[in-house]
Specification:
The complex is a heterodimer. By secondary structure, chain A is of the alpha/beta class. In chain A, 37% of the residues lie in helices and 13% in strands. In chain B, strands 1, 2, 6, 7, 10, 11, 12, 13 and 14 form a nine-stranded mixed beta sheet that branches. In chain B, strands 5-4-15 form a three-stranded antiparallel beta sheet, with no helix packed on it. A two-stranded antiparallel ribbon of chain B has the order 3-16. Classes of the chains: A alpha/beta, B alpha+beta.
Chain lengths: 490, 491
């Protein structure tokens, strides 16, 4: 009974259907574990009462033979970037103090309509800006994984670090994340979980606190490719309230997991072999290719020539959009207000107190690159390179069906590593940002442990709106990797 | 190009010679639509503060704009009405600045790629003169909310009802050369917008607002430095602000100074413009394409269908009134200047003499309405009723003179012409026998005057007409009376 928290979503759904346990028992098991795992600081807000009520309602539906949703009774964590009706929504920032939305984001609405149970709101880097979860106003999240024989606290990745830590620590069966430059895939890789960022436009952004609108996408983090397929199937779909969401039918992603990748053409991009890549990562990448080949895939070397410009391009476009998106946090209508003697002073005091260092840095960068006299040299130039990066992928996908790369340049690191130089931290996104810039789907799958016993992930990239092929390929990788390791104490 | 615009009567005399004033106008016209440009909130004027605000308008986290197709249609119609190029692809940009009544910290506008490009508008000037002014562009943008500074000694209140309402910014070329031309431009633009039903044009409710770019130069010189005057919210103030600003600039230059490019505010109380604080205008708006919105793409066939469905606009209507109905260009111009007058006229003239109807409308009804301060839509005499009155004149039921009395009563009581004529027995006497009887009586009573007339004092004819008319209560048919009287006096 006590290890319901170790089930995958797929198994839990079967168990619920077979009445092996109730949704209430499943939820209670998680709530109990959340109490023990408080030290991870994965949740900003826990909503156990709400969760129990929802679980009871799910049990009632099953008992009465009512319609059962695709996630009925499954306890999930929600990244605190999703607005949830009546529940504190912080975006990991002081500036949203006390903000309880009167509305529910489209993605969480879909999850709850499918019967999912919310356990609480998960910690994250402030406004999703970060790769370590250190920028959260609510304190950093701690990765449940530790290096062998070393008790140093490690980062869970970011920005969806609460999500990845919670899923890895079995205090949520799955979690929502958002990914602007790698914020689902990088934390998934650092915690031994699976995370998929779908194609831009696949999930509605309505009700998600915006970071960089042209890059942000919601997606799930879970413990298997199949669980991600189940969650994504619920989260995806056209939303007339988001002009950038695409009017396209959502395939049955779970059904698409046939296990057959014979003839699948897998591209290995030459340019991802970056300077200073560790032998471990390099070996794992080669092993991943071998695993796929062994299952009938064809491995091809490809070129994505503009890759080296992706990171600087991302760090112009994302801050530019963020500087504008975050202008609404001004102390006038919601959240924190620090009074001043004039309107300008109130703005200054409120924003100075409300935003953390990294957010301020990005607002400054973004404001700068959009300024008169700099716009052409930075923002416009970045948009041109962004188009070239997309063209690289379009060309590559003439010859291959999916692309295989490492997810991150390193395993989880300590809190004081990568601290002095923000650029070092930005390098965490080197393999993931290209996918956001091109609007493509990308997934990280746990593929092995490094020499210190920490999980490493491999990333697969798919064609736009071909999550089916991507998930099928990722499952083949997952099967071969057979990643079963658990963080100590979980 | 500009040389053809020089007209001596527009030049301003300075100490050092004659100056030409160069004017361009930016008009913000509120799109007539039930809901806002990017949200479903209502747009009614005068609602209680903050009762027409959606979460999108208030800039709540995670809220996204969705374009209102009605507003797009209205902008395209307006572009077509201005004979302008319709851009099948246009882009919404964010204009970033902080203000309490701008909830998102940016206004969604169109900067580099507006929905409408170059067009023209024909000004109707005094003495039947017409002149073309270029339209540079028209773009769609959101209005801001309203800051209320006078509700509390130390606080400012914010009303977001207007935040997000759709505006069309319509920019003219610097083609105007006098305050009269600027006023004519605004009148014509407003008229076109009202014909199209795309903006109600009510300047006093703020649904049409105007900024004026003013510069001066010596005839033949290149363009001078311009100042933008904001907050000029009536046609009268536009004219006054231009007059004042042009003279101010001439004075500055003639005293050896130079004009700084700046934004100035019109102060209607003092009747002058003043420079805004430099802080108020030192904005770097950091425009960039709004990533929440895709480029706006229009279907060429859809634009064509809108074009085919456009109503007849004032210029075309005036030309038709002149050509088909035989009206003078002046009368036609007066009638078409407001859509309501033109509609009134066309309804009234249906089945009646177009010129006679036009005369009754322009000289009688407009005069009366003016005197009581009412607009044509508030007229106590309906178009149909006026037409009936004209009909009674046409079929000789009443004379034109009697008709004026009938009209007065119609205006005061709202009764129909026929009812008044019947009630008061004003039907014209067409019976020559009856007229003869009255003539005989008058001639008998004024035998001395008859003798004088017959002795050559022709002028007395009018006296006899007047006497007979009075005796007949004005109801004799004037032509018949003339004929019979002439015959009888001739003996």
């Amino acid at each position: 009974m006590n290890d319901l928290t170790h089930l995958t979503i797929a198994d839990a759904l079967d168990g619920l259907a077979a009445r092996k346990f109730s949704a209430r028992e499943l939820t209670d098991a998680h709530i109990q574990k959340m109490g023990a795992a408080k030290g991870l600081n994965a949740y900003i807000t826990e909503t156990p009462d709400l969760a129990r009520a929802k679980a009871d309602a799910s049990d009632k539906r099953r008992a009465s033979g009512g319609a059962i949703g695709a996630l009925d009774g499954i306890p999930l964590g929600i990244k605190d970037l999703f607005c949830t009706e009546g529940v504190l929504t912080t975006a990991g920032s002081h500036i949203l103090d006390g903000f309880k939305p009167t509305y529910e984001s489209t993605v969480t609405s879909k999850l709850f309509d499918a019967g999912a149970v919310m356990l609480g709101k998960l910690n994250l880097d402030e406004f999703a800006m970060g790769s370590s979860n250190k920028t959260s106003y609510y304190g950093n999240v701690i990765n449940p994984w530790k290096r062998k024989g070393d008790n140093t606290d490690l980062v869970p990745g970011g920005s969806s670090g609460g999500s990845s830590a919670a899923v890895a620590a079995r205090i949520a069966m799955g979690a929502t994340g958002t990914d602007t430059g790698g914020s689902i895939r990088q934390p998934a890789a650092l915690t031994g979980t699976v995370g998929i960022k779908p194609t831009y436009g696949r999930c509605s952004r309505w009700g998600i606190v915006a970071f960089a609108s042209s890059l942000d996408q919601a997606g799930p983090i879970a413990r298997s490719v199949e669980d991600c397929a189940i969650m994504l199937g619920v989260m995806a779909g056209h939303d007339p309230k988001d002009s950038t969401s695409v009017e396209m039918a959502v395939p049955d992603f779970r059904k698409g997991l046939t296990g057959d990748i014979r003839g699948l053409r897998v591209g290995i991009p030459r340019e991802y072999r970056v300077d200073g890549m560790s032998q471990e990562i390099s070996d794992l990448w080669a092993k991943g290719a071998e695993w796929l080949k062994a299952q009938g895939a064809i491995i091809k070397e490809i070129s994505l020539p503009h890759t080296k410009y992706a990171l600087p391009t991302y760090y112009i476009i994302a801050p530019a959009e963020a500087s504008s998106n975050l202008a609404r946090y001004d102390g006038v209508r919601f959240g924190l207000r620090v009074p001043g003697n004039s309107l300008d002073e109130m703005y200054e005091l409120t924003r100075a107190a409300g935003f953390g260092k990294e957010v301020k840095r990005r607002i400054l960068i973004g404001t700068y690159v959009l300024s008169a006299g700099y716009y052409d040299a930075y923002y416009l130039q970045a948009q041109k390179i962004r188009a070239l990066i997309l063209k690289d992928f379009t060309n590559a996908f003439q010859d291959v069906d999916v692309i295989l790369t490492p997810s991150t340049p390193s395993a989880a690191f300590g809190f004081h590593e990568n601290e002095d130089d923000p650029v070092q931290m930005y390098l965490q996104d080197v393999f993931t940002v290209t996918v956001n810039l091109a609007g493509l789907p990308g997934i990280s799958v746990p593929a092995g442990l490094d020499s210190k016993g920490l999980p490493l992930g491999l990333q697969m990239i798919g064609r736009a709106f071909d999550e089916e092929t991507l998930l099928r390929s990722a499952q083949a990788l997952e099967r071969a990797a057979n990643f079963t390791a658990l963080p100590a104490g979980v | 190009m500009t040389d053809t615009l020089i007209n001596d009567k527009n030049l301003i005399d300075g100490r050092t010679g004659k100056w030409e004033v160069v004017l361009g106008l930016e008009v913000h016209a509120q799109v007539t639509s039930k809901s806002k440009l990017f949200s479903g909130a209502a747009t009614d004027f005068g609602a209680e503060p903050n009762t027409q605000v959606s979460l999108v308008d208030a800039g709540f986290p995670g809220m996204l704009p969705v374009i209102n197709e009605v507003c797009v249609e209205q902008a395209v119609k307006t572009g077509l009405g201005l004979k302008a190029q319709i851009n099948l692809v246009s882009v919404f940009d964010r204009k970033n600045y902080f203000y309490a009544d701008l909830p998102n910290g940016y206004q969604i506008s169109q900067f580099l790629q507006p929905i409408v490009g170059k067009g023209t508008i024909v000004l109707d000037l005094a003495e039947g003169e017409h002149r073309e002014v270029g339209i540079t562009r028209l773009h769609l943008e959101q209005d801001a909310g309203k800051s209320l500074h006078d509700q509390h000694p130390s606080k400012t209140y914010v009303d977001l009802n207007r935040a997000g309402v759709a505006l069309m910014e319509i920019v003219s070329e610097p083609d105007m050369r006098s305050s009269e031309e600027a006023a004519a431009y605004l009148k014509k633009l407003r008229s076109i917008l009202r014909y199209l039903g795309t903006c109600d044009g009510n300047m006093d409710e703020g649904s049409m607002r105007c900024d004026v770019n003013v510069s001066v130069r010596k005839v033949g010189d290149p363009l001078g430095t311009r100042c933008e005057i904001k907050n000029v919210n009536s046609i009268r103030y536009v004219a006054a602000a231009i007059e004042h600003e042009a003279r101010r600039q001439i004075e500055v230059i003639e005293e050896g100074g130079s004009i700084r490019q700046e934004t100035r505010l019109w102060d209607p109380g003092k009747g002058m413009t003043r420079a805004m604080r430099s802080k108020e205008q030192a904005h770097d708006y950091r425009y960039f394409p709004d990533p929440d919105l895709l480029p706006l793409k229009l279907d060429a066939a859809w634009v064509e269908s809108l074009k085919a469905g456009l109503p007849e606009l004032p210029d075309a209507k005036r030309a038709r009134f002149v050509k088909d109905l035989g009206l003078s260009d002046y009368d036609a111009g007066v009638l078409v200047s407001e859509k309501e007058s033109a509609d009134f006229y066309e309804l009234a003239a249906k089945g009646h003499d177009p010129k006679l109807t036009a005369n009754w409308l322009t000289s009688e009804l407009f005069g009366r309405l003016n005197a009581v301060g009412k607009s044509i839509t508030e007229s106590p005499v309906s178009a149909k009723a006026l037409g009936e009155l004209v009909g009674l004149i046409e079929d000789n039921t009443i004379s034109g003179r009697i008709a004026k009395d009938v009209f007065t009563e119609m205006f005061e009581t709202g009764k129909s012409a026929a009812a008044i004529v019947d009630e008061k027995g004003l039907r014209q006497v067409l019976d020559t026998g009856a007229i003869d009887v009255e003539i005989d009586k008058i001639m008998a009573a004024n035998a001395d005057k008859v003798a004088e007339y017959r002795g050559g004092k022709d002028k007395l004819f009018g006296f006899f007409v007047g006497q007979v008319m009075r005796a007949m209560g004005g109801k004799a048919n004037p032509a018949m009376l003339n004929d019979r009287l002439k015959a009888k006096l001739a003996g």
